[in-house]
Specification:
- It is built from two helices and four strands, in the order ααββββ.
- It is α+β, with helices and mostly antiparallel strands.
- It folds into two domains: 48 residues; 35 residues, Wheat Germ Agglutinin (Isolectin 2), domain 1.
- The strands form two sheets. It has a two-stranded antiparallel sheet with strand order 1-2. A two-stranded antiparallel ribbon has the order 3-4.
Length: 83
């Protein structure tokens, strides 16, 4: 019985060691992680865009996709009133 427990413990330790070794080899270096975090923070600051609300249906959408007519913002050409 003790042999089975010992064998199970040895197998568990080997699996633990292999997983730890694989995990440590996949980690990036500290300098790589720092440069990646700086790049990611620059990318997110460029992607942030103001959200605006349609004057007709009150849907929120990015400013770049909105239509500005007579000082009012619309989400589509169909919502712009015909004058």
């Amino acid at each position: 019985m003790w042999r089975l427990i010992f064998l199970g413990l040895v197998i568990w330790l080997m699996v633990y060691w292999v997983k730890r070794h694989i995990r440590s080899s996949n980690k990036p270096n500290a300098t790589d992680a720092q440069s990646q975090s700086e790049t990611a923070s620059n990318d997110t600051s460029e992607k942030v865009e103001d959200m605006v609300q349609c004057a007709h249906c009150a849907v929120h959408l990015p400013r770049s996709e909105a239509f500005l007519v007579n000082g009012k913002i619309y989400c589509s050409k169909n919502h712009i009133p015909k004058i």
